[in-house]
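2024-03-11 09:14:02 DEBUG pipeline.ingest accepted 1 chain
2024-03-11 09:14:02 DEBUG pipeline.ingest length=484
2024-03-11 09:14:03 DEBUG pipeline.predict start
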Amino acid sequence: MGRSKKGRCVKRNKQINSEEPVDLVRAPHSFVIQRGLPGGHILELTKDFRRVMEPYTASSLKARKRNTIKDFVSVSGALHVSHMCIFTRTELGMYLKLCRIPRGPTLSFKITSFSLARDVVSTIKKQMVFEEAFKHSPLMVLNNFSGEGMQMKLMTSMFQNMFPTINLTTVNLSTIRRCVCLNYNSVTKLIDFRHYAIKMVPVGLSKGVKKIVQAKVPNLSKCQDFSEFLTKPTFSESEAEEDPTSHVTLPQKLSSRGNHKSGTSAIRLIELGPRITMQLIKVEDGLLDGQVMYHEFVHKTEEEILKIQKSREVKKKLKENRKKVQEENKKKKEAMKEEEKQKSLKGMKKQRSESDVLMHKAAKESYEDNQVEEDDDAQYYREEVGQEPDKDLFAGRPKTGDKRPNSYPVKYKTKKLRLDKNVKNGDKKNKKFGNKNRYDDEKYSYRQKKKFGVKDGGTKSQGNKKFFKGKGSAHGSKIKRRRN
């Protein structure tokens, strides 16, 4: 049976040449990193904030100390990253910086208090944390952000642009599973950050019917009949406390059980965490390094602002001049490298041509030296005898240096068959059993006598034993056995 043909070892990756969808490219992506002093639960808070920003964030980003902001900015273009959230910790407190990549602006917030997601979830009686909710971006809800001032408008646009926009005509309500709520207190100037999971519950159903609709196993131990369980007008405590303003009519069917199109359902929010209370401190024009457009605590006069602007312009001009000088020096170095390269290539070509000429000359001289001068017999005959030779005198002779052709066949020696000594002597008995005859024994003893000069055939007697006096002990033992 023939062997089957082996298939491909590596599967073709269909995603290599496939383009990313337009919605994914246009959606705002983010980096969430941590800087400054370690400790104070800053690492856990960073992970919780990444959870909030999913799925358009680098959830498993590993930022090391040696990574600078320039490293993240250089990578952001290929990964469609538009925002960067930096949690920093100093001796004075903890801060959050929201940056727009690549040119800013940068908003700096001071975190006055926070609670981690695990602490928030542990305080809830009915926890609802499921992975399906984090496959789609949350809904952004802003409250009381309509104050006056440039910083309020900038802060509002920054929070809105951190999450993808929603088209109300084409949105699928089943994908809206989370929401981020930001509340601004105009008196204390504090911002409350909250993260919730959205749950839709059908309204107008009894507790028993709702359990059946939601595919839950009912407890019928207190009911005598199943109809009693269905008609029992009992409501849960949460339903009795519900506000009628939370009831909505669904324009489309949801993936959760019991929520049908044109049906009435109640919206419930379950907190996922983290909780952050922060205050806007500073607004910068650039990316972590630019003109301060707003500061909560530091106020400067117009003269100080002009001085700062002049010093910035001077620094900017110096930087541009340094860049020009660096570019000129770089071009000069490249030109010098190119000249040296051309010179080296010319030298290599010249060296090769000279070496080729010398090699040809040496080969020609060696050929002329090795060439044997041919003897002209006819000319020699003319000079010595003084007559023209006959035509057939030197016609058949080969020239000097030519190899004479073989006029005779090559003979090869035939290998003679080597016969056994027993066959030569005609001893049939020895031929049959393979034993050596007396002639061989006498011949061997004669050799030993000639070699060692021993009269008794190369043996020496010591007591009643005889042993061989030759070179090898094994061969001597054979002779000894034969003589015994």
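2024-03-11 09:14:41 DEBUG pipeline.report The two ends are 66 Å apart (CA to CA).
2024-03-11 09:14:41 DEBUG pipeline.predict end
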